[in-house]
């Protein structure tokens, strides 16, 4: 299920690819390492989604240092199977490559910002055309690189599904022809590349994409779609500083009872600076801790058979009585009722809004 909260973000896996290519091309890290979402604890966490603006900045820096054709080819070369998580296997594990790319289109949000990027499939008799639509606010060169890479990625995954290299009938790129494009010829395996097209697309014979996938297993696609749904449901979109703070606070809460100084240390700021930033964002330390505790308690009551005493201990409360008072304050009910009904009583308002 795609939430509006996911828009404006991309998967950390896709961002890691961009960072890796920037490093391979020798781009100085000081130009991008400070960007939101690139701290190791976020970049290496598959639950985190990086701001699309971060990925855009890396792409623009990369094409300043290297031709867009080189960037697109390097991205495709670095995109080994599994590098983009469950999205890769939706394509390679489906009964046919065509069914796989349909699933990839339906779950494109697991990797990309579908507010600006889309994967579209057009079936026309003997031909299947896969288009990549990019409407992000990018420099021309960066946009060309991303479109060319996307088509190469689709071809690579479809070929991996078929267990043989699938050569497209034609490739159309919404880009002016570069002076040299032999790298693109090698990427796609064809000289049939049309430049200055209205949209970027790659076309295959329908018979190539309708051939049964050699290693498909019955029911696996259903399992992978459920996993993709879970990936989106549990994702942590990072849009701004407050998102980063809440990620750090949740991480600290999973390990111990969080303290302001400990979370400030995780974010490499002083406790005083942390309190000031919270105030600037219209919230407070106590409110944020209470929200994390509420969510944690609710998950434990709904998802485990732990006693109320155990839930209290795991949530940082002195005893079960303190936990019951908190649940009453949040939801106007008891822990037992909340567990039994799976939801708060009607009319409960939860925590008050701050700001």
Task: List the SSEs and their pairings.
Blueprint: E1 9-11, H1 12-24, H2 40-43, E2 48-51, H3 52-65, H4 68-78, H5 86-92, H6 97-106, E3 117-124, E4 127-134, H7 140-162, E5 170-172, H8 182-188, E6 193-194, E7 200-205, H9 206-209, H10 220-234, E8 236-237, H11 241-255, H12 260-266, H13 271-280, H14 285-303, H15 308-314, H16 320-331, H17 335-341
Parallel strand pairs: 2-8, 5-6
Antiparallel strand pairs: 1-2, 3-4, 4-7, 5-7
Helix pairs in contact: 1-3, 1-4, 3-7, 4-7, 5-6, 5-10, 6-7, 11-14, 12-13, 15-16
Q: What does this molecule look like?
A:
- With 355 residues, this protein is an alpha/beta fold.
- 52% of the residues lie in helices and 10% in strands.
- The protein contains 17 helices and eight strands.
- A five-stranded mixed beta sheet has the order 3-4-7-5-6. Strands 1-2-8 form a three-stranded mixed beta sheet.
- α4 (68-78) runs parallel beside α7, α12 crosses α13 and α15 crosses α16.
- The chain is globular, with a radius of gyration of 24 Å.
